């Protein structure tokens, strides 16, 4: 069907994500009886019940480090890692509560910014995860509170009112969460410590490296050297023995979702699982991960992005699964650990993580800045507006198909993301506009968007971040180039175009 006749736009009345499912395939359903992983993980956690907490996973944000005495409980302010088990921030908050023999509380400050990036797709996924968190907390005697508004406005008052003695939170290197953290720090009672635990990275971001890293090759050794220490099992979070006298208000999740001011034209999606990855797709990962027609990837990025699943858990299980199947897992660990943790490093040590004004660790990336400037006035073969891109109205069927994929399914294949972003550089008037449009489309439609991986993915494709210079050519300068012919050599492009 000609691209122009197909609708991929947010103008569609029905939520577009509903149209296709990425649920397990027939092959995945047949492979093994589902549910084995849950049982295996439960056993591992139980065996590791007494496992200690590595204090390098935390840092104090407040001046005070001592928990306030005589308090009514400890609070875990859940910011990025929306899960109960396999969560080092919650594990640490629980340890503090056990030491002081006080109740444990979890709170989420739900704030929906007025933005085209606040979509039903993202918030329904978040709320489904939170509903599970709330139910698990209830079963474990932990109070789950949902506060509606920015953390800086609500959390300090909540801590005072509930007479809580310490606040533990998790770690995100992105601008808004860092601002919320600063706000909370300023307004929190001075005798209540604010403790941040990196529950997202296996090697905590500040331990992996104290500085902005130049590329995967400069951080790889630093991370892998520390994996034996940090890539451990998790202790089971058991029922909390100290009951709270003040209990949390129950949440009506349906009502909550329908009351949120989100853009409902970008609809919900459905997704596959870690278990089916280990059973079926892992054996193909190494050889077929660059083929968008093959089911070879884990599909886990949305769960990791929203913290519903711990990357450390994924790494552990995939290593174990790989050993059982006799399958190499190093290429997967490279993506999941090295590449992913490099993106937190990039955003944490570089405030301009979404700008063409790339950072300046001594001399680094100067080549990219210069080459983009040198070629800023080159004639572009095609020029498309953001709207044309959003509607997949380009001359390139493969690009349009990739754009349709993300609009409908909420996730574009990893290989195509590179091609997709590089073409935006080629077809827009300036690198600044290309980056802004790529980030807008990525963060609005990718369910895993608004994440350091997305900022770095777009920066890598358009600004050469973490890459090297290549043969110079128009528009791109020395930024790595990708073209349609190259895709034809890699996979059955026509089959992919037919599918979307
Ligand atoms: C232009 C562009 C935009 C991107 N936008 C995002 C985004 O918004 N969110 C996002 O999570 N990823 C993004 N990526 C990285 C990558 O494409 C996705 O993480 C991957 O396709 C997700 O699919 P998967 O979970 O099946 O990955 P798998 O290949 O199965 O990998 C497993 C996990 O490793 C991590 N990972 C894989 N590839 C990378 C990578 N290149 N860099 C960092 N981590 C990686 C992810 O957490 C992923 O879930 C982007 C890449 C590019 C080039």
TrEMBL record:
Its cofactor is FAD. Gene3D superfamilies: 1.25.40.80, DNA Cyclobutane Dipyrimidine Photolyase, subunit A, domain 3, HUPs. Keywords: Chromophore, DNA damage, DNA repair, DNA-binding, FAD, Flavoprotein, Lyase. Involved in repair of UV radiation-induced DNA damage. Catalyzes the light-dependent monomerization (300-600 nm) of cyclobutyl pyrimidine dimers (in cis-syn configuration), which are formed between adjacent bases on the same DNA strand upon exposure to ultraviolet radiation. It holds the Pfam family DNA_photolyase. The keyword rRNA-binding does not apply. Residues 1-36 are annotated as: Disordered. GO terms for biological process: photoreactive repair; UV protection. This is Deoxyribodipyrimidine photo-lyase. One of its GO terms (molecular function) is deoxyribodipyrimidine photo-lyase activity. InterPro entries: Crypto/Photolyase_FAD-like_sf, Crypto/Photolyase_N_sf, DNA_photolyase_2, DNA_photolyase_2_CS, DNA_photolyase_N, Photolyase_Class-2, Rossmann-like_a/b/a_fold. Its EC number is 4.1.99.3. Belongs to the DNA photolyase class-2 family. It catalyses: cyclobutadipyrimidine (in DNA) = 2 pyrimidine residues (in DNA). Residues 72-205 form the Photolyase/cryptochrome alpha/beta domain. It comes from Tetraodon nigroviridis (Spotted green pufferfish).
